[in-house]
Write a structure and sequence with these properties.
By secondary structure, this protein is an alpha/beta fold. The chain is built from five helices and seven strands.
């Protein structure tokens, strides 16, 4: 695992990521995955997912590909409040984006920067995503999602550990397909 520095806003430093990928390409060293944090716990920073996905396309053309995982535990829930299409509605006076306040939707306006809306909309292009609706959505714990674009990947990370079930005989646990625990 390699840590990539963040900028002063708490977002992944895209230039440093690109330099690291160039080094791996030159050494012919594979990269398994790049993780974008979509809403850090401390700062609420959203990594530039659209640019990370574009970077992957550029490196794929050079012969280096990798999975993109979005740790969207905090802000992933907000994606459900954005319009369903790829378009982003913009209020140029405030440079904020969101619904127009009309009666066409069931959710209230959501004021997010255009870049954040674009990054949230790009979640659909990730290979895997984690979302914890119990955080920003105030849904009861242990609601949470670990979603894979290709469901076959779950068999590559399947594992069991007795401490995850805490001795429970509950057969409904999906802990073998992702990290799951109980309080």
């Amino acid at each position: 695992m390699v840590s990539i520095h963040v900028d002063h806003a708490g977002k992944l430093d895209l230039g440093k990521l690109e330099r690291h990928l160039e080094e791996n390409l030159a050494k012919r060293q594979p990269v398994y995955s790049v993780v974008a944090v979509i809403g850090t716990t401390e700062e609420g920073a959203v990594d530039p997912l659209v640019k990370i996905l574009a970077l992957r396309q550029r490196f794929q053309a050079k012969g280096l590909s990798f999975l993109v995982h979005a740790d969207a535990c905090w802000d992933g829930y907000f994606r459900t409040m954005l319009p369903r299409g790829p378009e982003v509605a913009t209020d140029s006076a405030t440079n904020m984006a969101g619904r127009d306040g009309g009666t066409d939707g069931l959710v209230p306006d959501l004021a997010l920067r255009v870049e954040t809306q674009e990054d949230l909309s790009a979640l659909r292009y990730c290979d895997s995503i984690t979302v914890d609706p119990h955080k920003a959505g105030h849904i009861p714990y242990p609601s949470g999602v670990l979603a894979y674009r290709d469901g076959r990947i779950r068999s590559q990370i399947t594992w069991t550990a007795p401490f995850l079930s805490m001795g429970s005989t509950d057969d409904t646990s999906i802990g073998i397909y992702g990290v799951e625990g109980r309080y």
